[in-house]
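Handout, section 3.2

Students often ask what a structure token actually looks like in practice. Rather than define it abstractly, here is a full record for Cytochrome P450 87A3. The first block is the sequence as you would receive it.
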Amino acid sequence: MYWSVWLCVVSLFIASITHWVYKWRNPKCNGKLPPGSMGFPIIGETIQFFIPSKSLDVSSFIKKRMKKYGPLFCTNLAGRPMVVSSDPDFNYYIFQQEGKLVELWYMDSFARLVDLDSTSQSIVATGYVHKYLRHLALAHFGTEALKDGLLSKAEDMIRTRLHDWSKLPALEFKTCVSSMIFDFTATSLFNYDFKMKGAHFSEKFTNIIHALISIPLNIPGTTFHKCLKNQKEAIKLIRDVLKEKKASPKSLKGDFLDQMIDDMKIEKFLTDDFIVYVVFGLLLASFETISSTLTLAMKFLTENPLVMQELIEEHEAILKNRENPNSGISWKEYKSMTFTHQVINEALRLASVAPGILRRAIKDIQVNGYTIPAGWTIMVVPAALQLNPDTYVDPLTFNPWRWKVHITFYFQSVGMIPLLSNQNDGRYIIYTKLMKCLGIIWMPF
């Protein structure tokens, strides 16, 4: 009798586990899911995805599955069912359907860093709030803001830093550029002088970036746990600045944070927490993408003397045409730097900082005979498109001259994800490209 009961319990347990594993590997869908594998229960294929790579090429995780399943496949990362896409037409379609079929979405690690739970993600991703943030960022970092003084301030900042670096026996380029970009962006956002406070917060943000490619386990000793400590210090800094500004409304100077404080009188969604995490998110997003692309661009320039020579010739030609050789860069000169912008485009193409751009399906989406269920995450893989040999000849070769060829709208929008995605959710692509341009102009000298 005892053995019969025990055997029955074991059988039920095995049957339950088997049923659970089956359901995990075969999610419900009102149609046919794209091919792929959901990996192991709970962890999915997270471990394979996070294996680091030093190559500029598409990660082995993506390449293997593209070869096996095609440009559209399903997987599970960090416990979330996901469809990964390297299909250019579908990716273009997805970005055009924002707010209709899809919404902005983030991995759990990033969502926890910027205090986005599932509810607040939806609030930020769509509607009036989304529009407000876009207009606010464009007002402070868009074309008019750059023409009105941000361009000259950025140039002065780069001149000063280059002068300081010239006195050093050696420097770590990525660290120095990250610090420069971070300090300038922070000053532009909330007019804060980090030198007076003696805090090197750019280093803390660099550490925080590591959490974006880690499993979100807040356990002592893990990367995510260490990053959360740095995040709390950064959040405290921004919160303290916010309190100081709110306590002295007459001291407001009209920067990004000042504008949000003033708008709190009429916009109900603008709470202290919301403002703090918006500023934190902008800092986190801007300094890493700009500094990483600039660092990679400098590497390519040192390895390609012909590119460097043409850059110098373009810049010297502009200097010769100036009435005052000591004046700063004008907006007209910036727009006229054809080859410089080609170098930036090529660096952007090769520098896929983010492993993927995420959206979440609001409704079931039909694509190529497959169904992406509502609630699933969609990951667009920039590198798979930007390093596609069918679109770019010798895709791993740094060749700015490839941008001289006539480029159709299709090629720009479908084959160049950094520009497309940043137009939709970067909020200040013009500012980002400007900082990269100024860096490329000055740093070779």
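Discussion prompt for tutorial groups: The beta strands are 72-77, 80-85, 102-104, 357-361, 365-367, 370-372, 377-380. How would you have guessed this from the sequence alone?
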